[in-house]
Amino acid sequence: MPRRKRREPYPTPETRCSTCREELKPYWRYCPKCSRQQRWGDTHHFTGAECYRCGWIVSDRFSCCPWCGADIYEEGHSSEEPLRAPKGFRLDARCDWGCGGRVQYPMSHCPWCGKPQSWNEDARFEGDCPRCGRGVDDWMNACPWCGHDATGRDLIPRALTRVRRLLLVSRIRDWDYRVLLRPGISGVDPRHAKIVEIEQRYVVGKRRRDEIPWTLLVGLLCHELGHSFLYHHWAWTRTPRFRRTFGEVDKVYRGMDDTWVYFQRRRVAINPVDHVSAYAAKHPQEDFAETFRFYVTRRGRLRELFAEFGRKRKGVILYEKFLVLHDFVRALRGWT
Ligand SMILES: [Zn+2]
Ligand SMILES: [Zn+2]
Ligand SMILES: [Zn+2]
Ligand SMILES: [Zn+2]
What we know:
With 336 residues, this protein is α+β, with helices and mostly antiparallel strands. It has helices at 157-169, 201-204, 214-232, 240-246, 284-297, 302-311, 316-332, and strands at residues 15-16, 23-24, 93-94, 102-103, 127-128, 135-136, 178-182, 195-199. It is elongated and about 85 Å long.
């Protein structure tokens, strides 16, 4: 039976961002709150060595800086064979390239062979950075790895500005929603009502055919914001008036991918008679999200919308859906 000597782990360097005092995890390159670039030097004298190029802590037994990849081989100091636990480091994962050496999370290079390393960060973070693909959490403004906007909102500024203005003129009070570009499908998790995820492929896709025009992105955002708004005000769905109008919103259903194709229509559909769009007829939650989208993209101008309903012979219940939302929006602003 192999004997495993328990090593007292080296105290991991602990630090706060010098600008905003946010607590940082070891070896984050940027502060996720204020995006300040970090340098992890040997401030606690763990190893007595720093990389000549990036100034980060290294071991003098390394041949390569695990942080910037610089060649730091020094005869007489650097180890000819990879070491399991050079002073100051706990090397717990194998080098991706099978050089026989070990690496420590989140080293970007193997300290022995110098080759770039990749890490599976699914269990460590809530999502992936839309720029560099490494792990980020929903609250992060900046990616701790590449320093870019971790939300990806900087990639769709025009659509977001338009949506913000539309909400403002529709007089819908901000409920602190947060838009994030993420891989997967667009949608809102009811357990995280304020987080609106937009499939990043539509915006940063390598496959150009996936890109969608920004006006359509506005429609998609307004629709998803409708889901977020409803989850955020879920108690409202329990009121008799809401139920009479939209029905049972918690009826089981599964979201669908590629829904955005439905959101390009700005005109009210003639069919189905009791819904604002064909997509709205799929589920009461979609019905609400579509009602919300039309309400917002038409700037809350019911008179205009209702005139269009009249021309298209829409059902009475559709008017009521918009009135229910309109009254609720007004109530939130403190009017009655
Ligand atoms: Zn900071
Ligand atoms: Zn370096
Ligand atoms: Zn290696
Ligand atoms: Zn990044």
